[in-house]
Amino acid sequence: MKDIRINIVDKTYQADGRSHKAIAGLDLTIQRNEFVCLVGPSGCGKTSLLNIVAGLDQQFQGQIQLGDTQNAAHIGYVFQEPRLLPWYTVRRNIELVCSGQPPAALIDALLVDMQLDAVQQQYPERLSLGMQRRVAIIRAFAINPVLLLMDEPFVSLDAPTARQIRTLLYSLWRQRPHTVLFVTHDLREAISLADRLIFLSAAPMQVVADIPVNLSRDEREQPAQIEAFRHHLLDNFPAIAALL
Ligand SMILES: Nc1ncnc2c1ncn2[C@@H]1O[C@H](COP(=O)(O)OP(=O)(O)OP(=O)(O)O)[C@@H](O)[C@H]1O
């Protein structure tokens, strides 16, 4: 897949007789297999952006170029809430998104990687929120996505659970590289995952700063290194403090 080009000239919502300009003049290029974290204040338009990239919202001015893959079947989307179907088992929830024959071996491997193989025949209501979020991540990986969109997938999890799932996600991504757009409010989380951080302004949303993260995998696992990088960012890019 070639680079992804996102050019949103204007995204305006009309509601209750009023208009709200959510995004204006946003221009981004994401390289193949890059892991990009999008960081911006609440309500600035991050979900709106992901919905446009996913093709779920076509009411905007601009253009999205997904390289060779204009096909939504190759886009995995992990929403803010797990959105599992309660009347299907964990395994069935994952299989449902696969077109044609579900890739049994891949699903088996993902269930093991995410430590969910023992509960695959259970129904979502029997799972903790952290487990449901892991199922949602597997469901996105099961289609072997070329592009993975993740909208604050670890929000409202306790810190140890979020850390555990983050580590699993990072190792899955390293095993099966693909382009990721990951929305988060958590700068430490963003630093631990991303090749590149894109800081976004309040509405109308625009790019404030676009910063590479040059940390090794070992460094990303050391809280002191993450903290040092965070201080480096806040010292050298004062404008981003207001966005967190
Ligand atoms: N369907 C809609 N109709 C009208 N306004 C909307 C609609 N969806 C979103 N908005 C508005 O657009 C703005 C951006 O919303 P969006 O959900 O994209 O922000 P966000 O950055 O993802 O927020 P958060 O970080 O809180 O999840 C908000 O002001 C929101 O109220």
Automatic annotation (TrEMBL):
The lineage of its organism: Bacteria, Pseudomonadati, Pseudomonadota, Gammaproteobacteria, Methylococcales. Belongs to the ABC transporter superfamily. Coiled coil: none annotated. It comes from the Bacteria. This is ATP-binding cassette domain-containing protein. Residues 4-227 form the ABC transporter domain. One of its GO terms (molecular function) is ATP binding. Keywords: ATP-binding, Nucleotide-binding, Transport.
